[in-house]
Q: What sequence folds into this?
């Protein structure tokens, strides 16, 4: 779990990892050492205040140089919200996240459809599973060039899609995507906020963290 | 069609957190020699002729810039 | 030329602009008497800003004393006088909470005004040694369809969200109220809650001669200079915000980093005392710290890191640049302190040293520009017993009984009224606002808006948690300030209890017009007296608060608006009672309390007839206590599946909200006048739902506390209709459309 | 000190909701004759001499603009 200056959901994501049966390890943005972890989560928040562009400054942190390198060798990496933005800025994932079409920050419980269950982070779900997890972002509108989108669709790399309403204007209702290998996944919604009935709209988000434990074992 | 460019900047005495954050990041990226960064907004408008510059200034002043904290420059390009 | 102490001695007759700085001539002469000479311009700046209404509480002090005189509460660990009060919630945890206003700045520049309001209250909480864990935002605007509300509301909401979201603080509740009286004076109040272990409580004092004074956080710039005295203490000129004072811009990222940095510093136990820089900036921090500690401090002002090198020393002392803190650190800890700051890339500078001289001395370019007894600046300000006079129009107002207003006479009228009320700006769904706030971050939000109170988990192992609610009703308070304040207290108290939490402590923000108007001052005095008396009956301490005066346009003051925050504790948040119907099988509905024909100051009278008159509903705090006892016990025993307090809009509104929240229908049967039953705003009532098999046990509990309980009806999950037997049935879809359509129609539909 | 101005705009094919919102608001405010509005960012940097324009372009391209969705122009002012 990487903490950048301005990361907010880092402790929440650690809790989610713990509830899924994993052992969370705190990593620091300024430290290039990943301490031998089996997978990396880039949590939500406002790294560097989201100034300039979301994720634009965090992308250059020392820790990201290692993440970029090891992701290329198959290390599972999940970017949630701000983490997704950082992955796009780092070019680990294609496309970009822009200002929500309605120009507001929006927090709501969102229905999603899991479109790809073969990634390191979604193998615990069944194809076409529908889950409810919170979304909360101001710049979550996914955009990419038409040919990139066609490739993403063609290769099954749209991992999650908004169902029942699109909260930010993302093209083709895309909520999350993965790289070619399926080890790097980024999504705007927050599965780590749907891991306990007491505090979340559901426990549907646990699957992301359970998936990677299986992936790490295999 | 004539184009009008409006640049909006925070007044110099107002804190510019975005500019400061970028400036702070530069050394980490190995860029030196930049002593200050300020970030503002850049608007490009396409307008019909004839261009009523005075009216456009009102527009910039009331809508594009927040005169409490920002100031603007306006250029009409042919 | 620098105005030094020496020069001030040599030029006693040098004319000084004290009145431009907001000081009265007597006040200026008092300063001269204290110093035995004329003040230097820097000293004058410090006194003027610290003796302003905002910082010195000169008009309110004599009244606020009543809060300090309440019986000592055993849960109160730190009381009024510190940055925020601290209460013991058990298991070694302490919670601090406080409300502040940022009304005038938010009118001038809604986004930044509201954002820096959040920033300021969060620093107050942080200063106590606590991790901030949530915010709330009680807001008041002019009419929803007024053009200026279109400017102010979206900006304020975006500012609160922009700052709070970026800090990672869940927003768990607040209020959005529209009323003509706030048109030129919106109210932007912000509450923050923080948690710490008992041993981590920190205080604002500079003790230990030789200890170092460290300024850390953002650099000091020219923002908000004079903001305190101009923005907070003077009424706007009749022509509106034309003479715009400079505005502060917030940097939530810097504040977020500052929070984490401070918490790490607290954990390493590196501060002797700490103070945030808010209104009056360094003037306030240095004088308050030194008067609470060893009594003396020396500061070298040249060391203050500046954003703008052209600032004069007076300006540096008055600057309200945000995101700054001031700490007192023993010399041996300074290195470790600096290391933590460096790790977070927080600028930190030693600017001075504590001593026992009894004086605050400040140097600039090697010359002495300030030499004052700090207590006289921080606490020696004038105290006024302002004249009080019952408002001349009050008799006419109370005589204007709403009983004479036309009421709906047919079932069809009633149904139309129910839908229209549900769609009225004050009662309608506030999702347009609240979805701009993050309520999930930190992962401990158990209940948030639109529930009666926000509920936060504090301890993941035990489930220990707190509930917080804020309430205020300017119309009730206008009609009868004493009762109005108590009604606000009662409602916040009831809201906390409705979720199952035991009310523990009170904070408040008192928003009023000009204290120089005897009618306003009377309202203020009555409201404070009502609140203090109310707290005595409920057995709750007032832990702190804030006063905002001069909320008026010309001679017209806002409706007096005390906002009351109540904090409660819950031993296990898993036992909280939510408001949605339909979460348990076979639910029956009961109403606790008595419904009377009470429409004075009601939402019905206002939204249907634009009428404000008569008397507000009767308050019975003994009944509120009994009610709370029932609700808390019922939650502990797991008797209730839902509960919702009856307030604005009465039973009708509560039913609409509970049905829509659970997306289930209900059928109710009314005895007596259906209009009064549905729309009266009698206090001390709660609507509950529970599985039929627990009804007997629950009614027994009510009888034991002598609270009347009436059968109302049943939840009907299979019927998507709210039915009032013998009157009407409204499909939920129609209800939802009415309830949710209003704000998007007014402020722009945010898309699908 | 030399100043460098960088203007960053969304590529024309990328939707610009901020520009559209402004355009949509204009008629309501009584402004006509504006046919399109696009909103971008405007940066002003103060740099030390000598000015290495090529290096500044790299800075603009890697940090100030995101080449996936944005394009930039750079001007060095004396
Ligand atoms: N209405 C009030 N009720 C109770 N305490 C109050 C009220 N107004 C101010 N206080 C208390 O007076 C003290 C000084 O307030 P203030 O100067 O606003 O503090 P700060 O500058 O830390 O915000 C604080 O302890 C505050 O809680
Ligand atoms: Mg304070």
A:
């Amino acid at each position: 779990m990487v903490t950048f200056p301005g990361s907010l959901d880092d402790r929440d994501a650690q809790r989610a990892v713990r509830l899924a049966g994993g052992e969370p390890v705190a990593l620091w943005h300024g430290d290039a050492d990943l301490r031998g972890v089996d997978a990396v989560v880039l949590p939500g928040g406002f790294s560097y205040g989201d100034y300039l562009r979301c994720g634009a400054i965090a992308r250059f942190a020392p820790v990201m140089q290692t993440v970029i390198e090891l992701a290329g060798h198959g290390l599972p990496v999940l970017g949630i919200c701000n983490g997704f933005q950082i992955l796009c800025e780092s070019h680990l994932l294609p496309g970009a996240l822009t200002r929500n079409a309605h120009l507001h920050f929006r927090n709501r419980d969102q229905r999603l459809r899991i479109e790809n269950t073969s990634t390191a982070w979604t193998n615990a779900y069944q194809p076409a599973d529908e889950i409810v997890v919170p979304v909360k972002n101001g710049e979550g509108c996914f955009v990419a060039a038409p040919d990139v989108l066609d490739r993403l669709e063609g290769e099954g790399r749209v991992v999650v899609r908004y169902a029942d309403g699109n909260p930010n204007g993302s093209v083709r209702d895309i909520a999350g995507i993965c790289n070619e290998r399926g080890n790097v996944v980024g999504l705007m919604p927050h599965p780590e906020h749907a891991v306990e009935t007491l505090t979340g709209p559901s426990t549907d988000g646990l699957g992301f963290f359970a998936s990677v434990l299986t992936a790490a074992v295999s | 069609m004539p184009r009008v460019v409006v640049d909006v900047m925070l007044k110099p005495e107002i804190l510019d957190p975005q500019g400061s954050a970028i400036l702070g990041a530069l050394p980490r990226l190995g860029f030196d020699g930049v002593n200050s960064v300020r970030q503002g907004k850049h608007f490009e408008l396409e307008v019909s002729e004839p261009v009523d510059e005075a009216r456009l200034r009102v527009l910039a002043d009331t809508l594009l810039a927040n005169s409490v904290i920002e100031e603007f420059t306006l250029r009409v390009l042919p | 030329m620098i105005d030094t102490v020496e020069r001030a001695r040599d030029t006693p007759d040098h004319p000084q602009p004290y009145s431009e700085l907001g000081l009265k001539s007597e006040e200026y002469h008092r300063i001269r008497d204290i110093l035995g000479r004329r003040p230097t311009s820097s000293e004058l700046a410090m006194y003027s800003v610290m003796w302003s209404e905002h910082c010195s509480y000169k008009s309110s002090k004599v009244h606020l004393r009543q809060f300090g005189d309440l019986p000592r509460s055993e849960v109160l660990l730190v009381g009024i006088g510190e940055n925020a009060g601290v209460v013991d919630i058990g298991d070694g945890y302490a919670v601090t909470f406080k409300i502040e206003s940022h009304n005038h700045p938010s009118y001038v520049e809604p986004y930044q005004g509201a954002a820096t309001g959040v920033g300021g209250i969060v620093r107050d909480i942080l200063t106590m040694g606590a991790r901030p864990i949530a915010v709330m935002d009680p807001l008041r605007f002019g009419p929803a369809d007024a053009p200026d509300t279109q400017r102010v509301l979206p900006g304020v909401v975006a500012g609160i969200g922009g700052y709070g979201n970026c800090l990672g603080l869940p927003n768990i509740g607040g209020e959005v109220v529209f009323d003509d009286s706030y048109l030129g004076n919106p109210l932007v109040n912000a509450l923050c809650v923080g948690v710490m272990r008992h041993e981590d409580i920190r205080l604002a004092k500079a003790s230990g001669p030789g200890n170092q004074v460290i300024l850390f956080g953002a650099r000091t710039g020219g923002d908000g200079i004079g903001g305190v005295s101009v923005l907070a203490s003077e009424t706007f000129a009749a022509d509106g915000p034309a003479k715009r004072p400079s505005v502060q811009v917030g940097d939530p990222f810097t504040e977020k980093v500052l929070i984490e940095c401070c918490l790490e510093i607290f954990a390493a136990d590196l501060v002797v005392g700490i103070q945030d820089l808010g209104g009056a900036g360094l003037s306030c921090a240095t004088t308050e710290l030194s008067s609470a500690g060893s009594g003396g401090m020396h500061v070298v002002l040249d060391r203050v890191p500046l954003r703008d090198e052209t600032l004069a020393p007076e300006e540096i002392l008055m600057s309200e640049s945000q995101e700054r803190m001031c700490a007192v650190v023993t010399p041996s800890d300074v290195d470790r302190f600096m290391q933590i700051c460096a790790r977070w890339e927080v600028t930190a500078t030693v600017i001075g040293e504590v001593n026992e001289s009894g004086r605050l001395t400040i140097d600039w370019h090697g010359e002495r520009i300030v030499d004052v007894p700090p207590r006289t600046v921080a606490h020696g300000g004038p105290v006024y017993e302002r004249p009080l006079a019952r408002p001349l129009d009050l008799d006419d107002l109370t005589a204007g009984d709403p009983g004479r207003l036309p009421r709906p006479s047919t079932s069809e009228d009633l149904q139309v009224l129910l839908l229209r009320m549900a769609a009225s700006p004050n009662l309608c769904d506030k999702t347009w606002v609240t979805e701009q706030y993050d309520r999930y971050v930190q992962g401990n939000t158990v209940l948030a808006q639109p529930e009666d109170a926000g509920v936060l988990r504090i301890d993941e192992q035990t489930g220990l948690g707190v509930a917080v609610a804020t309430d205020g009703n300017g119309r009730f308070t206008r009609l009868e300030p004493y009762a109005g304040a108590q009604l606000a207290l009662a409602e916040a108290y009831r809201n906390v209890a409705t979720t199952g939490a035991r009310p523990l402590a009170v904070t408040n923000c008192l928003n009023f017009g000009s204290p120089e108007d005897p009618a306003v001052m009377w309202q203020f005095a009555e409201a404070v007296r009502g609140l203090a008396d109310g707290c005595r009956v409920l057995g709750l301490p007032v832990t702190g608060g804030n006063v905002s005066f001069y909320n008026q346009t010309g001679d017209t003051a806002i409706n007096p608006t005390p906002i009351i925050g109540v904090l409660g504790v819950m031993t296990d948040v898993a036992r909280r009672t939510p408001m949605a119907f339909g979460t348990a099988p076979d639910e029956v509905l009961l109403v606790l309390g008595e419904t009377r024909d009470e429409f004075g100051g009601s939402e019905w009278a206002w939204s249907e007839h634009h009428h404000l008159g008569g008397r507000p509903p009767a308050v019975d705090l003994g009944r509120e206590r009994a009610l709370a006892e029932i609700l808390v016990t019922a939650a502990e025993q797991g008797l209730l599946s839902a509960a919702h307090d009856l307030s604005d809009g009465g039973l009708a509104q509560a039913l609409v909200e509970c049905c829509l929240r659970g997306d289930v229908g209900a059928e109710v049967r009314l005895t007596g006048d259906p209009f009064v039953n549905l729309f009266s705003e009698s206090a001390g009532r709660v609507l509950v739902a529970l599985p039929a098999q627990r009804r007997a046990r629950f009614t027994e509990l009510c009888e034991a506390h002598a609270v009347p309980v009436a059968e109302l009806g049943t939840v009907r999950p299979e019927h998507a209709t709210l039915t009032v037997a013998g009157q009407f049935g409204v499909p939920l879809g129609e209800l939802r459309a009415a309830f949710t359509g209003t704000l998007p129609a007014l402020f722009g539909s945010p898309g699908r």
About this structure: The radius of gyration of chain D is 16 Å.
